[in-house]
Design goal:
The protein is an alpha+beta fold. The chain contains six helices and seven strands; from the N terminus they run E-E-E-E-E-H-H-H-E-H-H-H-E. Strand 3 and strand 4 form a beta hairpin. The longest helix is centred in the middle third of the chain and has 36 residues. The radius of gyration is 32 Å and the shape is rod-shaped.
């Protein structure tokens, strides 16, 4: 009669030399070649703020640490300079419209013709072009493959979502108009960039975006 033994887990009788219980499938020998023993990480778990994230790709299902490259964010002052550059670019593009209307109004005034309203109209058209131009400029550029306006590109910055991915035109639009709120509250929404952990202004928090810097 062959040697038998009983499973420590369910009590089922098994034939001698069996590597797994015939009833519950529990390994009868933890060091069996069929089940490689788990290799725990040196620290047992990842430390918060250590720049590593847990991974469950190991055979035993135990977490292993995987290093994550450091991410840098665009600070307050460098983003201010980038915004000034973008504003100048928009002004240069829109300025010819104001010059044309202003010139027509001046010519009408000098000739005695009632064209003074053209200068006023030109100011209104210029304002509207700046309003819509800034929206389309930012939304298209930040949702494009460049992920940044020209001002941000100069300093190696790009706008991403919270996972570092490219944002959609809709999200870029929401971020642009959320800047109005950042400015309406005495600019506090912009100042927040200098104090938040990932350099997010109020508009970034509302839109779920980051401004990363290479």
């Amino acid at each position: 009669m062959s040697e038998t033994f009983f499973c420590n887990k369910c009590g089922a009788q098994n034939a001698g030399g069996a590597q797994f219980c015939i009833r519950c499938g529990t390994p009868t020998n933890p060091a069996s070649p069929g089940i490689p023993p788990p290799v725990p990480s040196p620290a047992g778990s990842y430390a918060a703020g250590s720049g590593a994230v847990p991974s469950y790709a190991s055979a035993g299902g135990y977490p292993a640490t995987v290093a994550v490259a450091g991410v840098h964010y665009g600070g307050f002052w460098i983003r201010v300079v980038a915004a000034v550059i973008d504003a100048v670019i928009l002004r240069v593009v829109v300025a010819p419209v104001g010059v044309i209307f202003g010139g027509l109004g001046m010519a009408g005034t000098m000739s005695g013709l009632p064209h003074r309203g053209l200068a006023i109209l030109g100011g209104g058209v210029t304002f509207i072009l700046l309003l819509f131009g800034s929206w389309l400029y930012e939304a298209f550029m930040e949702s494009s493959s460049y992920q940044a306006t020209l001002g941000k590109m100069i300093f190696g910055m790009k706008v991403t979502d919270l996972n570092g991915n490219r944002i959609s035109f809709e999200r870029a639009t929401g971020r642009h108009f959320a800047k109005w709120l950042s400015g309406m509250i005495l600019g506090i929404g912009y100042i927040m960039v200098g104090f938040t952990e990932r350099k997010q202004g109020l508009h970034d928090l509302l839109a779920g975006t980051l401004v990363q810097r290479a």
